[in-house]
Amino acid sequence: MLTLEDTSREELREVMDLAAACQSGGLDQLLGGKTVCLAFFESSTRTSASFELAARRAGADVVSLGEKDSSISKGESLVDTIVTLDSLGADAIVLRHPAAGAARLAARHTSAAVINAGDGCGQHPTQALLDLYALGGALGGFEELAGRRVAVVGDVLHSRVARSVIPAFRTAGMEVALVAPATLLPLECGAWRVPVLASVDEALDWGAEVLYALRLQKERMAGGSPRIPSVAEYAAYCGVSRRHLDSGALLMHPGPVNRGVEVSGDVVLDGRSLIPAQVAAGIAVRTAVLALATGAVHEVAA
Amino acid sequence: MSDLVIRGAHVLDPAAGLDGKMDVRVSEGRIAEAGDNLRGTRELDAGGLHLFPGFVDVHAHWRTPGREDEETIESGSAAAAAGGFTSVVMMPNTDPVVDRPVIVEGLVRRVERESRVRSYVSAALHAGLRGERLTEMRLLKEAGAFCVSDDGLGTASAAVLRNGMLYARSAGLPVILHCEDHTLSTGVVHDGAAAALAGVPGIPASAEDVATATALVLAAETGARVHITHVSTALSAAFVGFFRDRGDITADTTPHHLTLTDELVGTLEGMYRVNPPLRPDGDRRGVREALVDRTLDFVATDHAPHAAEEKELPLEEAAPGFLGHETAFAALYTELVRRGKLSLPRLVEAMSCAPGAWINGTGTISVGAPADLALVDLAGEWTVSGETLRSRSGNSPYLGRRLTGRVVGTVVGGDLVHDEIGARFGVRA
Description:
Radius of gyration of chain B: 21 Å
Number of domains of chain A: 2
Structural class of chain A: alpha/beta
Oligomer: heterodimer
Shape of chain B: globular
CATH superfamily of the largest domain in chain A: Aspartate/ornithine carbamoyltransferase
CATH architecture of the largest domain in chain A: 3-Layer(aba) Sandwich
Mean pLDDT of chain A: 92
Order of helices and strands of chain A: HEHEHEHEHEHEEHEHHEHH
Largest sheet of chain A: 5 strands, parallel
Largest interface: A-B, 18 and 21 residues
Distance between the termini of chain B: 13 Å
CATH topology of the largest domain in chain B: TIM Barrel
Helix content of chain B: 25-40%
Number of domains of chain B: 2
Strand order of the largest sheet of chain A: 7-6-5-8-9
Number of helices of chain B: 13
Number of strands of chain B: 18
Number of strands of chain A: 9
Strand content of chain A: 5-15%
Number of helices of chain A: 11
Low-confidence stretches of chain A: none
Strand content of chain B: 15-25%
CATH class of the largest domain in chain B: Alpha Beta
Low-confidence stretches of chain B: none
Largest sheet of chain B: 8 strands, mixed
């Protein structure tokens, strides 16, 4: 599970179905006897906690190498860490790393399943899967996503989430548009062949039913390469606010939210916000991903 | 409804393909028709005069806010109208810098009250023109800003400039750029023979050329609508020529860089300090040839008023800048057209049609266009004098010079905003 770029609609549906089964509790000890290693070369709260709970509740043995108190903090290289975990008999290695392509590199050095938990500005496939799951839940199922319009709003340039949700939404049959100033988009953002819109208001005019807001890092405003002028201007054009949700759109965000920047504070927990549902979907979806990646599903079925 | 017919002038407008004696009828502030024996409720006898589309200046400093002792919107626009200009862009390097929507809103309101011509507010490309943070360009545009600019200072960091261009592109604003590398431009006058002999610290041509090259590369890459202002060297003009079809790129040069050289440095007078500095004859010629062959699109004056106490100083202590509006046409007509170095149609194109098309769709006497016009007596001779200039300042490098070509009337949206031949404008009912 390195990327969703080449994942088929069938494969997405398989993950969704298995996640639903996990959530309904019918698959006890799905990962019994499996060893899951969490290797986080970059700090993470929700993703690492979500993977750890997913693995433990499904009965796996979990080895956790965090940033602190581990060989990683002592400067061990990515490949050496992966080889070590492989030697320990890992069935799955969940990897978070600050550089794009790290998971792909890791996969070449282990027979364990490598699950990309975020690599630089590259990919964050399990985030996109839990987003599909949460959105499907809100709209009445995975099949209901087809034909709907979603606007991905904000710092696409620096976002691994964007690089996973864009192909995931499209594979699910959705139409995607981007909303961002040119400074927060790759120079060649035509690479995705999707419309680029100037504001959330324009996205609603375009017909967006879902507004997927990305986190804006405040350091984008200053430093050697300022990309936006102010929170006020960003929020005015790229922030999701009450009036957008009042028009019927759903709000999604991968977290953590900058209240008052990409999402106005009063709508984070609004009835039309799927943000809590996205977090809640994390455990079931990651259990399903671990089960599929380690082959546990087929063993259970057998 | 009252129609005004301007009768019998030699109408010259390369954009509309007009060149000959005819009448022009103005109605509801727009050009209604051009032809022979037109009738209107009011008529103006313009026999013996030339009628051009009003001149358009994308580069002026009206010193508001902050230095209203040097110029105001009222005095600056009066000077512009006296020079035949009907549209002007004000630069943002005021005190405070025009970098917040509330300042733009204030200027737009004052323009409505005070300006005789169409005046456009340019906002700063970066906050305080410090080159660190981008300005709120989308909010600035909503407040009424026409474009963004780093004029007066330039942008030190290529990364900031690139992001500024990208952001301006998203905001839908053109970018007017002052190209100057401050690590190189530590001097006062052009770093040439005159500076060597005079002992005044030099600014090498590279200070402009390096920054122009950077700006052009970034303009081509980002696709932003970029206008390079006051090109003063032959090499920078050549760079513009190389890049202009690789992006949405235009450029201008000034009347003073087309007519004066750094020989004036020998006077050691603070009056002749300007930025970019007056260049040697080779650059003057290169820039002129680039204007002739349309590598440089048009002329802008960089009208930069300064109080007497800021100019009556040694070069090294003087403030850089020249008045421009009131002498632009006459200086170029006298020095270039009459000497056969620039055709009159190309001069009109460079002062009216091209900048008008770039900024607001004026600059032409075609039917339906705004009736923005300049009436000029090409034979009229006059001496540039501080007493007759409308600007609040007197820092014209042409003071005392005898020039040929006199703007005698200026029309903006059908209204006469400058009238030097009142008798003729005592319009027949």
